[in-house]
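Tutorial sheet, problem 5. The two components below are modelled jointly, 570 residues in total.
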Amino acid sequence: MTGKPGNWSQRLVNWARIKSPWITIFNSGGCNACDIEILACLIPRFDVERFGILAKGSPRHADILLVTGPATLKQASRLRRVWEQMPEPKYVIAIGACGAEGGVFHGLYHVMDSVDSVIPVDVYVAGCPPRPDELINAVVTCLGLLAEDIAHGGKEWRQKKAPVSTDTVNPVGEVPV
Amino acid sequence: MTEVIIPIGPQHPALKEPVNFRVVADGEKIVRLELDLSYNHRGIEKAAEQRDFIRVLPLLERVCGICSHSHTTAFAKGIEEIMQLEIPPRAQYIRTIIAELERIHSHLLWLGVAGHEIGFNTLFMWTWRDREAVQDTLEEMSGNRVHYGMNEVGGVRCDLTPAQVRAALARLPLLEERVQKYVGMVNEEETMLLRFRGVGKMTKQEALAYGAVGPTARASGVACDARHEDPYLVYAEIPWEVVTDTHGDVYGRTCVRIGEIQESTKIVRYCLEHLPEGNIRVATPKTAPTGECLSRYEAPRGELVHFIRTNGTDKVERIDIRTPTLANWTSVAMCLTGQNIADIPVIVAAIDPCLSCTSRITVIDDREKKKNAITFDELRERSRARWHAEERS
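Model answer (structure tokens):
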């Protein structure tokens, strides 16, 4: 993010970003239920394109990363890599109970228990799986967050509001951003 | 010409789930396929040993989000066999209705994905729109669109009200009409004929030799169906037929799946019209006696097998899940050989792969030459240690 909205080209980019967020879907080892509900968002009944939301194949084109699943150990490093490939400003939505804290898979030997132990998460969606309308609501909520971040000139204001405890070092060896 | 290795996945636009293919190609022709399927491994079989029969069903339901009812029915059926319980007929009918609705939704989902893989997105939009009628029915009956949570050991959780039965019956004619349209499309639509006919061919002998199951095998003329060979629930007493085809290619698999949607619609209609009165569950003992059971179930993708061993406690001693996708991968590797690179997505999609079911690990001690049993805590410790080591390197 390049600071507060100043010149007209930056304002145009910000406007376009809020009007048409591009999403990419990453299955970090879930059971497919959330994934088929995300795909169900694209069909005529729910039709997320009316909000300008487009599903993209490459994380390099995406503004919002939808992560499903509890992040298995094997997928965790791939998830981190996909997140690193996304251009700023990037937002992460952790979908379902597994994405939030492992859900029914909490404590299993090959899962990380939550997406936010691998990458920072902005929005959590409850449900196992959440309904498509809840998923659409999550993306729209994320757009509200994006607009607020633009007004504040970055994501830092949110961390001041709710500081991240420094002793929760994630397995990658870094303090969550 | 030299061989080139093309890596695909685990994150790839054509893939819906994490899997890694290493396609060895000679020009445009595929020579060999190497697979890495273990990205979705979560350790459900081990975790199932730690939970009692009430808590294990929600876990097993989440083995796979698309065929969730299959896993719970297969498990509940096995445990009921060990406990020697007689399940009331109304519960059996309700289980059958949910199972067949699940088959319809899974096959419509597959048809859409197959359409998407050949660049025919209109079909994807149509089938997924029609699938919503099935999802609505399932939501009315169980309260959820995807994980229904209908089964419990000894019966089902929710009863069907007359209003729910009427609403479900009212949705069926429209669904039948739409499926009839897809039957016409498969046989007339140029796009589908060109991309499906003669692609991923497998003969009857090959299907038997490679152990293919489900619609993949039935499309090659192998009439294997656990509902017919080893009838469970109410399949022995209701009229239905095994759908087979002799084409053996992706076209044949599409025909089988569309035929099965029609057949499933008939089964749902019959079961809703002949729903017997009575209880929906029986009282069950907390513990199961020592015993073993092999529970077969025809999931939408093929034959699903749960092997269950109990030891007199309220938990299973061992559960082994053999999923249809695991059985079908060898046939995919065989079908892909000699095909064009552009046909990889549609041939892989033709078995309707479900990777979240399929990921497995086996611990083998190489020096001691034995498969050793390790405890849950030890397994968790080892997994974490390996992950940290990988990250540091």
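Marking note: Chain B has a mean pLDDT of 88. Full credit if you identified this.
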